[in-house]
Amino acid sequence: MAVFGSPRDGARTGEPSANRLTGRQRESKVLEILCWLETPDCSGSSPAQDRISGVQDETRETWGIRTRYCKRHSRVYVTQQYPLPPGTAPLGADSPEGGTCSSRASSVRDTWETGAGREGTRALTAGRGLGWRGELSLSHVSAAIAIAFLPGMDIAHFFLDGNTDAVEFCPYDSYNHVLAASTYTLQEGDNTSRSGSIVLFNVNASSGQLDLLHCLESTGIFDIKWSPVEANIGRPLLAQADSDGYVKVHGLESSSDGPEDKGLVLRERTSEKISCSMCLCLDWNPSATSIVVGLSDGSVSLLSRSETELEIEQEWKAHDFELWAASFDTQQPHLIYTGSDDCKFSCWDVRDCPSKSVFRNSKEHKMGVCCITKSITDPNVILTGSYDERIRVWDIRSISKPADQSSICLGGGVWRIKQHPHIPGLVLAACMHNGFALVDLRGEEIKIVETYNRHGSLAYGADWQKGGSEEGKRENMVIATCSFYDRLVRIWTPQCNIFADPIHS
Fold it and tell me: Are residues 49 and 71 in contact, defined by beta-carbon separation less than 8 angstroms?
């Protein structure tokens, strides 16, 4: 990750997704997007107009389907372009009630035009061909359409006031809807400085919400992590590693003003100056009593945490260059894994002081090591990501000599790896210059099952929303991603059936 950025500009407001999820999401390869507009009633009032503030004549286009709203005539025009995306059926032959169908130049496009008319909403669906069916009952509906796409759909997005480098869903059951995003922006000039922030959002995928809850200004932040649920410490804690060499721990609390869901804030609990070098990454141990920190000079710091303070327990020189990855072994928390721009993947036993090197692999990674994560289901497996564009699966049964069991090229530097909270072997990867990828590690061959490329710059942050279970709940399919220079956070759902075993593309 480059430590450069463009100067901050004025704050941008959040923008809702062009389409809203209906709440009913079909297994048959479709995701219904509901876009409805309500006409004035006989009194001339129009309660829905506030929901589409600022909309005049507007055109939206996604996956070959163009929606145009003409305010003057209170009509919606839906045009499906050809060739269609794989798996997308053309529009049906029968027109909806109250509307007309135009098949002008049908080899190029089909157009639906819906005008003022009947009460109720007609939704366009797919699977067994596209047709119309009743979906909602709304009075004075001028035009209501649901455009059927393949899944892998955007839910909402938000532009931040800084270069966005990390997103983390809160893992605690009562706060699964809370998403934290961090920013890092280099302000160049005579007096170079680095600024940043942590922004909290409320995420409700079923209603298409990505609402700003709280913004905490800071120096430039490289990494954030929520405290582990198994630590059983009550309210969630969020730790940050920043460019001034500090580690800070914030508590998630309710503010005195506003309802609890809308009044969540971060309040600093403890802070410690770790080094004159920049703090690049961090990780909690399972009991939330220790935090490991990787530094820009290649050093590692091990901190002990209490309610009132952070204290440095150990420091050692682990690598020759920037240390981008530091991670506890969740089953054996006396072991810490580190990775660096020196292309080395190392393990340390912190029961000794100074920490003893358990292994150091300098042959497999052809470029710097960006991320390391222990499998949450298999105690013998570790995953690493590298600038060399490969995600690697390591067998650590021989801890002194781990085996590079398998790998796959993702087409971009693998900056972050996140495992699905319930499905073993399914990981989400942020691939820098090549967007995001869902990777199936199950079976004899590693497979890329889906990619997501709707960000406009470096893909750095990614996470799954926690909560729900493996039993097909949609919460498990909600993903947050962020990109650096376009300062964008997106919420979306994948296309593939992630509950299949194994996943098939």
Answer: no
Strand ranges, E, within 255-298: 264-273, 279-284, 290-295
Determine what percent of the chain is predicted with pLDDT higher than 70.
65
Q: Specify the long-range contacts of residues 259-265, CB closer than 8 Å, at least 24 apart.
A: 261/177, 261/202, 262/202, 262/211, 262/213, 263/213, 264/175, 264/178, 264/200, 264/202, 264/213, 264/214, 265/200, 265/213, 265/214, 265/216
Q: What is the DSSP string of 52-82?
A: GTT-SSEEEEETTEEEEEETTTTEEEEEEES
Residue 121 three-state SS: coil
- How far apart CA 230 and CA 67 sit, in angstroms, is 47
Q: Is-contact 207 214, C-beta < 8 A? A: no
How far is the C-alpha of 202 from the C-alpha of 194, rounded, in Å? Answer: 27
Identify the DSSP state of 114: E
Predicted confidence (pLDDT) at residue 137 exceeds the cutoff of 80: no
Distances (CA, A) of 134 to 96, 122, 138, 199, 300: 11, 5, 11, 39, 60
pLDDT of residue 123: 29
- What is the rounded distance in angstroms from the CA atom of residue 137 to the CA atom of residue 34? 13
Q: pLDDT tens, 406-433?
A: 999 999 999 999 999 989 999 999 999 9
The span from the first CA to the last CA of the chain, in angstroms, equals 30
With 60 as the cut, is the pLDDT of residue 64 above it? no
Residue 307's SS3 state is: coil
Q: Which amino acid is at 460?
A: Y
Return phi, psi of residue 231, to 5°: -70, -20
Take residue 317 and report the two structure tokens written for it.
């020189």
What local confidence, expressed as pLDDT, does residue 20 receive? 30
Structure tokens at 216: 């905490």
Predicted local confidence at residue 75, as pLDDT? 41
Residue in 223, 222, 220, 224 with CA at minimum distance from that of residue 185: 220
Quick one: average pLDDT of 476-502?
Answer: 84
DSSP class of 471:
T
Distance between CA atoms of residues 291 and 223, nearest Å: 13
Q: 505 pLDDT exceeds 50?
A: no
The backbone region for 443, taken as left when phi is positive above 0, alpha when psi lies in -120 to 50, beta otherwise, is left
Q: Average pLDDT, stretch 370-386?
A: 95
277: enclosing H helix or E strand: none
Can you give the pLDDT at residue 382? 96
